[in-house]
Each structure stands twice: as structure tokens, then as C-alpha cells.
Amino acid sequence: MLSGAEPDIQTGDHCGAPFECPFKHYCSAQEPVSPDHPVEILHGNTARRLRADGYDDLLTVPAAAIPSASQRVIWRATRLNEVYYDADIQREIKTLAYPRYFLDFETVSSPVPLWAGIRPYQQVPFQWSCHTESQAGTLTHQEFLDVSGNSPVEEFARSLLSSLGRTGPILVYNASFEASRIRELAGLLPEHSAQLTALLDRIVDLLPLVRKYYYHPAMKGSFSIKAVVPTMCAELDYGALDGVADGGAAQRAWWDLADPACDDKGAGEIRAGLLRYCKSDTLAMVAVLRYLARGNPVRLDEFGHIESTASIVLTRHNTHTNMVPTASAECSPKDAHGPDEH
Ligand code: SF4
What is the pLDDT of residues 72-98, one digit of tens each? Predict the structure, then answer.
């Protein structure tokens, strides 16, 4: 096989599943330059069918070739190079009570479980960030990070429960991830199970709202928060984050911190990167909801000063907290940690 000719096959979805193919760069370089708006913006079967029908540029595809209404929204916005925004979303957003919690988790997993009671490859949450809008325009921030190497589940759940209160919508982006982690925590921690399960009823997923009511041509077919938020708030650009800038990097950062060879200075920088990244994600959700509520761009200075009301960081050597007294004070404060403000 190695001595024969190379297979005549184009790059496509198969190059990234189940694993990223190491020849992707080589194969892409052999292919003609892709148009700015390839039909793959529409993804899946539609993109494959359009390719098979000889289309490569979405701008040349006629409306009749796109049967799905949601894909026609993307097609139209791309052709006209204009934003799609459906103001009907405003009615839905007005039904969201205060306080509104904007929540994000980071997790670590391992083929060989790191702690008792954990399955192979189970995503174990070790960090959360939460922006809380107590009333229109009034924001505070709380966060938790456990890179001590001990099982994070107990402190994670305890701190989370004390920060999320008993009422108010919990806004997440792509709810299945956070909801699954909360269910798993409820299974691991019978004493907190009822309270954790009660959180599930309060979850509001921003992703389907964005999918239904919004599209910007710069998203190029992606509804990931990293593609969406720069089109709503130009200052929230994940490309500007150094160190930790996605969930994979957050997980690698956890492993770096678990390495005994990681010195204090390096560990401090990695922890700061983790805190900055998770906090950016929840601030991004605040910006997404604000944009959807009114249909025009958001500026960071609209948020004013965002006070940090609780920051719990568990490291291999210390517990760092900077918090107003809340029920999460089970983590004994030994040192002050000052999170970066956006
Ligand atoms: S990148 Fe890998 S999977 Fe994709 S066409 Fe090339 S060799 Fe095949």
C-alpha cells in the first residue's frame, strides 16, 4: 500500500473523526484554494450533497437547493453579508427573572480514573465561574478552582450550591455539558443530591436561543460561543487570551499543575490563565444575553465595575480565598487571591 499511488480523496469530516488526522495540512495543501464561504458552512448532509452536486462556494448555491429554513437563514445572511436577528427573542428574555446566574464549568478526565468513584474518561469538574446579575445591569462575579490534586467534587458542589442560591435562572451555553456534570455530582454526593438535582430545573440554555434568533456571517456556520460572542461584543475575543483559551487547554493546564515539576511561578501563571478563561466564558454569556435582549452590539464598559464576591482557589499547598462571608466559607481562608478584572 505504501508503494502505491496516494488515494484520490478530498479532505472532509472524516479527517477529524474519531481523531484529528496528522496528514490534514499535507492533504489540504494539495487541494484548490477554498472559497471564503465554502458550502461546509452548512455542515453535514447538506454540505455533502451540495459538494456532490458540484457546488463549492455557498454564494453560488440557489435557495431552492437548501430545503431547511434554519440553513436558509445562514445562506441568506452569508449572501447578503448581513446579520440575522429575530426580535421575537425579546419576549422570551423578558420572562427571565432576577437574579440571573451565568455559569460555566471546566473539567478534567483520564482513561485511568484519578479518584475513587469516577469512571474512566468521566469529565470531573474542577472549576466553575459565575457572573450574577442581581438586577438589570448589576453584576458580580464568583469563582472556584481546585488544582490541589485531591478529588474536587465535594468542594466544587458545596461552593457551587452556596453561590447559586435557591431561585433564579442559571444560564449556560450548551446545557447538556453542565447538566450532565451536575447529575454526576448528584450521584457521587448523596448528601447534596436533592439540592444539585434542583439546579437542573433552573437551567436555561443560551445555545438554542442563539441558533433560533441570531446569525452573523462571520460565524461561518459555527454556533460555538467563541464564534458567536466576537460578533456581538468585539472586545470579547478569545484570540486575545494567552495560555488557556479553550476547554482542551484548560484540561491540559490542570495536568500541568498536577506535575510536581511545575514551579510556583509557572503554577501561578497557569492558575491565572485558568481563572481568566473561565471568567471570560461567563462574561461572554452575559454579553450574549444582552445582545439578544436588544439586537445591537455590546461594549464591555457597559458592565461597569464587576465586583468579585467570592474566589476560592485550592492548590497543592494552599487554599486561596477572597470572598464575602457566605456558606461556602468551609474552605478556610489562608491567603488572599485577587482575580483579574475584565
Ligand atoms: S487528512 Fe487524513 S483523513 Fe483526511 S484525506 Fe488526508 S489522509 Fe485522509
Answer: 999 999 999 999 999 999 999 999 999
